[in-house]
Amino acid sequence: MNELPEKLYYSISEVAEHAGVKPHVLRYWESEFPTLRPKKNRAGNRSYRKRDVEEVLAIKKLLYDDGFKIDGARRLLRESGGEAEQLDLMQPLQAKQRDRKVAELRRDLHDLLEFVRKL
Known about the structure:
- By secondary structure, the protein is mainly alpha-helical.
- It has helices at about 10-20, 25-30, 50-65, 70-80, 90-119, and strands at about 40, 45.
- It has a two-stranded antiparallel sheet with strand order 1-2.
């Protein structure tokens, strides 16, 4: 992933290179994620803002790294209010969910062990 220079707008090729995906993937994501709406100039070329780039990176993380399907990633973005920055909170949330599940399994195993001991 290349470093993105500081400027107001980025072309689709700049964003695609920065995110490590092809431009057609970005165009597809626009059709699937209502919160991803880069501006278009008179010629129809997309102009991505910094916020759009952050959203692209969040979508890529959800789909490629976290294993979400399009529907799940879309729902998660919608629940976060479309704010890609809030998705950084998902890693601890997933850890909390895992910890809760482990605690639940421990309780179940403890209950099962107590049941077996009474036999």
